Amino acid sequence: MTPKAQLPIPEHFDHKKVGEVWRVPYRERAAQAKDWAKQHNIQPAAKDTNRICLLIIDAQNTFCLPEFELFVGGHSGSGAVDDNLRLCEFIYRNLNAITTIAPTMDTHTAMQIFHPIFWIDEAGEHPVPAATSITLEDVQKGIWKVNPAVAHSISGAHFSALEKQACYYVKKLSDDGKYPLIIWPYHSMLGGIGHALVSAVEEAIFFHTIARDSQALFEIKGGNPLTENYSVLRPEVLDGFDGNPIAEKNAKFIDKLLDFDAVIIAGQAKSHCVAWTIDDLLTEILARDPNWAKKVYLLEDCTSPVVVPGVVDFTEQADAAFQRFAAAGMNVVQSTELILGD
To answer: Is residue 200 within 8 Å of 91, Cβ to Cβ?
Structure first.
């Protein structure tokens, strides 16, 4: 692969605004992107002989800005903001080499199994988000019970069936070696500002789309009320207590990703949605051709683990996962060191 000369950073990019919410001036950026392509002889993505996909996982306000619900601060306390600064610079510098950008969008409504309203205790109180994990024993002992009031809002779910499914769900997570059911704050709410991409990242993606005539491949995940969906490639649990399917893996998107010559992965959070997505991608690769692991690049300086000081720290789990991915043949790299090419 012959490296392409990296491009300069366009003047419109303001690194001081990566941690803020603002409106992208589409018309102005579109004109600038066309001019940028002419100035630097950037060809349409359709002409790429080496097709490269940049998979950006959940670079949304809800995870990436300090004042939002589930800010991924990492150990530094400014993790996701710093990650997105490097990610934007990576996009601009490699605009002529990245064929397609695929942003995933964590997408939720209020009444889902990992949100407080779904559960109550004996006093009718909801669990404290981010500080509550619900185990099979908790459900069996009645420490946490399904809130009867949510049953009518979940399509086709009678309360008794919902109780059975909830019990089955936490058992299935344990049996499969997954994280326990964590009750998260309401986040990535469909229609809310937290659901939107970070403005600076959205701007970089839009600029790439126009400059390279390459539509971004937006992928939505997380809308099933009965299962978490850390990975964009499959929900945590696929079946119900009665043996019937409640969800399915995202086979179409898996095929799209594996059709590229290289897949570069960044986003939030390293310990959860990023690690789980990579893990599922690796499972597919090992089932098809283990050598394909070599075409996956993990931008380690563009992702951070979930760390809530004094509450939880998933750094160790995140690092262990990335070590396992590297051992399987994937490339763990720094965004400033990875030089793309033909």
So the answer is: no
Burial of 96 (0-12, 13-18, 19+ CB in 10 A): buried
Helix (H, G, I), strand (E, B) or coil at 293: helix
Higher pLDDT among residues 312 and 191, named by residue? 191
Region 251-268: mean pLDDT is 97
What is the C-alpha to C-alpha distance for residues 288 and 282, in angstroms, rounded to an integer?
10
E strands in the chain: 52-57, 100-106, 119-120, 132-134, 145-146, 181-183, 219-221, 262-267, 296-299, 307-308, 312-313, 331-333
105-121 pLDDT, tens digit per residue, is 999 999 999 999 999 99
Q: Is 307 exposed, middle or buried (0-12, 13-18, 19+ CB in 10 A)?
A: buried
Q: What span, in angstroms and rounded, lies between the C-alpha atoms of 257 and 296?
A: 10
Percent of the chain at pLDDT > 90 equals 90
Structure-token pair, residue 158: 């009678």
Q: With H, G, I as helix, E, B as strand and everything else as coil, classify residue 327.
A: helix
Phi first, then psi: give them for residue 32, nearest 5 degrees.
-65, -40
Question: What's the CA gap between 258 and 198, in Å, rounded?
Answer: 27
Q: Which residue has the tokens 């499914």?
A: 165
In which residue are the tokens 């600038």 written?
Answer: 32
Spatial separation of the C-alpha atoms in residues 45 and 208, rounded to whole Å: 10
The Cα–Cα gap between 340 and 25 comes to: 29
